[in-house]
Structures are given as structure tokens and as C-alpha cells.
């Protein structure tokens, strides 16, 4: 029930968020297959790979792949979950590695060792009363499906995904209530390698395969929603989008309409299909102008219309400011999508603009458009942390960042937004998805692991650990 007052509702799902490929490790253990994340090198080279055409999805023995070991959650999950419990987590957002359940993706039967591992993780979470919030596909696609079938551009992958979701729904129907289908599904517009499972080739137009792949994911997502509701009747299954509100640089109508178009295209296209159950009207002009003709099978649109998600999970890290004509000097290069620099905002160590009020704006925009419950499943500050001589880590900058974003959520709730939870990203330090770095730290828990692969993997509580514990125990009253 929506509460129009400045406090978080009872039962609010406070917690933290992670992804299997960024923390588990156990690269070749438990009969695990190779995923997309396993072939992405660490360091700044990863950004080059993600943005350039023609990637071959091969492991180069001369390069370092930090995801192979991650932070070794595969062996240390009990220790880590105990720390989450000490902070008082009500929920833990995690993902299942598709390659642990179906190592190649196209097998007829699931891998028991992989299923058993997540049984142990879920049991450990429930021991402490922590609700698992599970992302089904979080940049974990089996590389075999990329090489053999071409990733999500191939309709056959829908069948393999359906087999995968049915296996995990049936196995964990008594252990997991909250699910999400595809992590940051709209990120495929800018990073098709991670989100859609293919690299655009130099000689091909990017638009046709990208949107055909999206259509296949929309069908697969609706199939998952249908199966989840049938197999786990009391479940809640959501979509997950990367949301960054788009501001016009000024009141020039040319810039206002450009910002509106950019926001609709990136923020709302995927959500409209998954929440409203239909392709938005604004995309028709885009398809026409780019000569995109989707292959849509009989029954696809009916399935999408009839099986929409229960809630919207989304990540929020930054806003984006846009103008129709911009110079290279004006661009905000640190942002995921550059836009132009916002003169009113500061930026993180990695150049991501910091905008807490933008989270309130995002919550109001999403709830006003869709009227379904919202769940902030990623938000956090990637920063360099310094370990003092006594072993302490004083990350007041992280506390300040999170405090202001939590205040913004509280204001949005007072605005009338139905917000069910907040899981801060990277509650324990892990591998950065975009840069493959350990030094870009988000966690309340420090992990002794470094960009060159060195480190003991020892866990340490940061100052923010104790602060967040107080936030949770007071249900957001004490910030």
C-alpha cells in the first residue's frame, strides 16, 4: 500500500545486490560452462571490447580475466552471507549463472552440481531470514549459444531459455519468491555483447539484428513470466532496466524534444513492452526510418500482451543531460551514455555524474507511467578505497552518496510512489562489469583483491557497513 508520508513502509526490502559473474569465481568448478563474462578481459581494454565490432568471444591466454576467480563467493558464500545478516539484510539480490545450470545452454537436462550449489546458497540466506531476489539472466549467457547460434538474434535461443527457466522455477519454487528476467535489458542498445549475446560485425547494420534480438528476449521474458506464475503462484517476477532520466540542456525546444526522444528510446522502449504488453507507438517511426522489419511469429504479440511483469526493478547511478548539437568538449565522457556535462553536478572517481534528486525524478516518472510497484535493485558509488594502517576503511564519501539517494527515495514515497525495496549495488566489493576492475569498489565489505589479480581475498568491514546496519534497523529513519 502506498504511504504518502516521509518514511519507508513496513516490510521494506533493504539489502544489497550482486551478480554471479562478478563475484562467484569457481570458473571451471561444478561442471560450469563458459559465459560471456568469462571471455571479457579485465581493465580498460574491456571498454574497447564492448564498444568495438567484431569481438570473437575467445579466451586469450596472454590476458587477465578477473571474473574467473571473482571474489570466490563460490567457496566463501557462508562467510559473506553471515556478514550480510550482520548488517540486517532483508533481501539479497543475486543472479543464477546460466552456465552452471546448462553449461553449453543447449543441453536437454540441467547440471545437478549447479542446481545443488544454489540450493545451498538459498538455504544459507533463509537461515538468516534473508529473501533472495534472483536475476535469471545477468550477462551470463553461455558462449556456446553465442558461437553456435548467434546469441539472441537467433529465435532458437528462446527454447533454450525456456528450458532454463523451467528448470530453476521447479527446483527453487519453495525458496525464491522474487525474480527478474533480464538484467538491464535496455543496455543491449549500447552494449549488445553483454546484453544480447553477439558482437555487431563491421560490415553489417547494427539496427536490424539488435531489435530482432530484443523481440526474442521480449518473447522469452513473457514465457518466463507465464511459467513463473504457473509454477510458483505466490511469486513476483519483474523486468529490470537501466534508468537514467534525461534532462534538456536548456529550454531551447530543439533540445527539449531531443531529450524527450532520447529518454523514450532508451528508458521506456523495453519497459513499455514488458510492463504495458505492447510495442510503444514512438518506436514505429524509428523502425521505419532505420528500415527495421521484425520477424514476429503468430502468437508472439498475444503472449507479450497477456504475460506482463509484476514490478519494475531498475538500476540508478546517474542522470543524463542532452542537447541536439554538442561539441566533443561538452560531452560527459564518464557517463554510461555521454550526453553533455551538467554544470550543477559533481562526478565520481570514474566520471559518473552524481544526482540524488534524479532518483526521485526517476521514481516519479516510472510510477506515473506504469503504476506498478518499483524496486531499486542497483544504486551505489564506485570509488577508490584506502585501507588505513590499523585496517580500517573510512568511506564517508560512500555514506554521503547513499544517504542522499535514500533521502530521495523517501521523498518519492511521500510523493505517492509504491517502492518495495532497495538493494545497494556491490554490497561486497566485486569485479566491475564495465571495466573489469577490482579497484572500482562499491561495497560495505572490502575484499583484498586488486586489478593485477593479487590479494588474499580477506574480507574487512568498512565504515559504511556499520552505517548501513543502522539504516536498516531503523527502517531508514536514521541516516
TrEMBL record:
<dbReference type="GO" id="GO:0008422">
    <property type="term" value="F:beta-glucosidase activity"/>
</dbReference>
<dbReference type="GO" id="GO:0016052">
    <property type="term" value="P:carbohydrate catabolic process"/>
</dbReference>
<feature type="active site" description="Nucleophile">
    <location>
        <position position="378"/>
    </location>
</feature>
<protein>
    <submittedName>
        <fullName>Glycoside hydrolase family 1 protein</fullName>
    </submittedName>
</protein>
<comment type="similarity">
    <text>Belongs to the glycosyl hydrolase 1 family.</text>
</comment>
<dbReference type="InterPro" id="IPR001360">
    <property type="entry name" value="Glyco_hydro_1"/>
</dbReference>
<dbReference type="InterPro" id="IPR017853">
    <property type="entry name" value="GH"/>
</dbReference>
<dbReference type="Pfam" id="PF00232">
    <property type="entry name" value="Glyco_hydro_1"/>
</dbReference>
<dbReference type="GO" id="GO:0005829">
    <property type="term" value="C:cytosol"/>
</dbReference>
<dbReference type="InterPro" id="IPR033132">
    <property type="entry name" value="GH_1_N_CS"/>
</dbReference>
<keyword id="KW-0378">Hydrolase</keyword>
<dbReference type="InterPro" id="IPR018120">
    <property type="entry name" value="Glyco_hydro_1_AS"/>
</dbReference>
<keyword id="KW-0326">Glycosidase</keyword>
